[in-house]
Specification:
Strand 4, helix 4 and strand 5 form a beta-alpha-beta unit. The protein has a five-stranded parallel beta sheet. The chain is an alpha/beta fold. The protein has five helices and five strands.
Length: 117
């Protein structure tokens, strides 16, 4: 049985690379290029792994707020182009459910080590 993952990011090139990597690890991969589509997928399906960009059309933080108020049974990783310490404290607090944060561009070796745990 394959594991299910979703990549919610507006960088199509990065999504392709991550989707291929996750497929090679045995994941079935959905891709959402904006927050609205991401929310639709998250309502419809359960995921073992969620990769979420914070700065994407429709606001990735809106998804984090929903995740924060729900029971999360998925591994959540944040992928972002902005340093987290530049965020206001109330937004940083939303990151507590994430296992880790990857700042773009990030080494694929680091990504693989974290995902394979």
């Amino acid at each position: 049985m394959s594991r299910k993952s979703i990549i919610i990011d507006d960088d199509e090139d990065l999504c392709e690379v991550l989707a291929e990597t996750l497929s090679d690890l045995g994941f079935e991969v959905d891709i959402a290029l904006d927050a609205g589509t991401g929310r639709q997928f998250l309502k419809k399906y359960s995921y073992d792994l969620i990769l979420l960009d914070l700065k994407l059309p429709g606001d990735g933080f809106s998804i984090l707020r929903k995740i924060d108020s729900a029971e999360l049974n998925s591994r959540l990783f944040i992928i972002t182009g902005n340093p987290i310490n530049n965020l206001p404290k109330y937004k940083r607090n939303l990151l507590d459910k994430a296992e880790d944060v990857f700042i773009k561009p990030f080494p694929m070796t680091d990504f693989l080590k974290k995902i394979k745990r």
